[in-house]
Structure formats: C-alpha cells, structure tokens
Here is the input.
Amino acid sequence: MASFIKSPSEILAKLGIEQLNPMQEEALSVIAQNEGTILLSPTGTGKTVAFLMPLIASLSPEIEEIQALIIAPTRELAIQIEQVLRDMGTGYKTNVVYGGRSGSQDRRDFETRPAILVGTPGRIADHLRRDAFDTSFINMLVLDEFDKSLEIGFESEMIEVLDALPNLKKKVLTSATQEINVPAFVGLVKPAQINYLHNAVPKLTVKQIIVGDDLLKGLADSLKAIGSKPGIIFCNYKDTINGISDFLQAKGISHGLFYGGLEQKDRERALIKFRNGTHQLLLATDLAARGIDVPEIKFIIHYELPHREQEFTHRNGRTARMNSEGTAYVLTRKNAEMPDYMPELEVVQLTGGKELKPSEWCTLFITGGKKDKISKGDIAGLFIKQAGLQPYEVGHIEIKLDCTFVSIHRSQLTVALSKTNNTRVKKKKIRVSEA
Here is the structure.
C-alpha cells in the first residue's frame, strides 16, 4: 500500500531544497485560500514547486480517480512537471500525456488511475473526447505558461477541456510574462494575483553584434570570442537551424538541435546532452524559449529575431536565471532593420578567442531505470568500480523510468562500453551504448 506524503518539509527534503522562497511561500498560502489564482514570476524562480505544493496538499488518498489536472503548452514542459512530481516522492501516482506518445501507453497508464494528470491541450482534449477517464473528481486545474496555452491555436482544445470539468474548485494560471488577458471561457472570477515579475534579476545584458554579410562567419567568430560556455542560438525556422548545424558540424563544434519537427526522443536527448555538457550549444526555435529544464545558460544569441516582443522576452529569460548573470546577443548585418519592439542596444565587437573544440564528454544510454530500482549510486559504481573510471571521469547521471543517461569523459568511451555492456545492475541485465 502506498505511503502518502503531504508535509512540505518532507517534500522539500526529497527535492534537496532547504526552504521555500518568498514567492513559493506566498503561493502555498494564496492558492490554498482562493478559487482562482494567477501566478506571475520570472523564469527559473520555482513556479513549478510553487503550484505543486498546494496541489499535493489538496489530494485525498481515498479517491482512486484523477483529482488534479495540469496543462502545459509543450511536451517538454509537461515532462518536466511530471519529473518534479516524481522527485517529490509523495506516493500519489502521476502520469503525463502528450502528442507523439503512444496512445496505447496512455491507456495502460489509465488502467490504474493517477491522482495527477499532466499533459498538453491537444492530447488531454483527445482523451476527454474518448471518455478515457472520469472527470467528476477533478477539483484542481493548473494552466502552466497559460499565455501560451490560451493562444489561438489551443483555444478550441482548451474550451473542450474546461467544459468537461464540472466540479472544479480551484484554477491556477502561471506565466513568466505580464500577459494576464484571460479569456472569459476560463471562468476566472476576481482571481488572486501573485506577481513577482518586478523581482526579475537585473543581471541580464542585451547587446548587438554587427557583422558583415556572412552571418555564419559572424556567428563562428562570436562563438570563438565568447568561448566554451553553455548557450542557445535562437532561430525562427528549422531550415535555418539545419543550415547552421551543417556549418558547425564542418568545424567540429559540438551542438544539439531542438525544434518542433524533430521526434520527441531526439528532442529529449538533445536536452540531456546539453545539460550534461556533451553539447555546449543548442540550436533552437522558440520552442526552447520556455518550459525546458536547462540550467546555467551563460548566453543566448538571436540569430534570427522573433516576430513578437513576448518571444524576445522569453528567449532572453533562458539566461541570467535566478541569481546568475547572462548575456543576450542580437546578431545582425550592418544597417539591418530592427523590429519596433527592439530598444536601443549597446553594440559590441567580439574578437579573439580560441577555436572551439569538440566536447570532452559523451553520453551513454543504459537500458535500466527507476522501475528497476536503479539509483545514481548504482550507476556511479558501475563505471567507477566495474569499469575503472576515475570519479572525475563520470559526469551527470539522469535516471528515467525505464532508462538512464550518463556522461563520461570521451577518452574512456571504449573501455567503459567494453566493461559495462551486457552486465547486471540490481539483477537487471543492461545494455550500454553511446546515445
């Protein structure tokens, strides 16, 4: 029988957090006391934990149906929320559904109802049309990054979802921007508002780099001057991304790709490799401007400027998160026409630096995960004790439900594979390969 945890102190201990920040403390109280809440806070300030803490407190262990629904505009954000819920270890079952995921897998997950369902608007609406689960016990709805979820493209699905939830007692909407025009169909009446946008850390600087007619050369020179730091290069179109990728590939510069046309598996692996240092650069569309878990971004480059100020703000919000510093660069040709929303920028010349080298790290894929009771200690032991790697040659470990990713020093790739593939961890026979 599951053991359920609601104590904030126990949940924070599992997350490795000493205490809630002021925004999270206020959210815990305000959400509990109000039927409708709008939570506005900058990217990276912990909004997910802020709405999950009161959500967990509202659940009943006796109810064996879905009690809370969390809707996110992107697959990545939905997956990230589900991962935080798993890390909380509350004992309440959580499932995530999104487009591109197997429908049969969703149906298997619903055989034992989760207490919390996380998903994207389209997939949630699809399940509701099929009467895949009982909605009468759902009493709390969270719209994370609601300014995106309530855009025109999602409007019909959102109306369907809200119409199918007859017994809602609480609605929580979150955003990282001052976009609080909530459509009438959401049914928010005099919501409480928590606004920490004025607390945005003023450590972001935005600068313009003016280059010659060859933008790719200008990009390469700029990256050389910036040095080997984690950063995102933002583009508007996947064709642009693929062109830059070919260019960087020819120069031996490690990078990942992240845009809507990629398979979900490829997008997830790009983020994993970016987090663990296998890739220092991520080439991305605005899909990466919010809702992805990529800490410590030192810079971003606008290779192509977005059409709207809102997306410009969200792109910039990927760097200088929390108390860190960061720089957003706007790469343009001389006399390029700038959008109306663009403020006057400081122009900088980036010169010098060393040629970027391929990453010293690589990522391994292991066919075993949390459901096999595999821990980070098990994986570290596999490579340090069994394969003979030094502790500093084993990097970031990410354990998923049915698989694991670990970064190791590339110089040890051959020996690591030969000594770990087709061996056992926790009685589970595993296969190990380069991701």
The chain has three domains: 8-199, 204-348, 361-434. The mean pLDDT is 90.
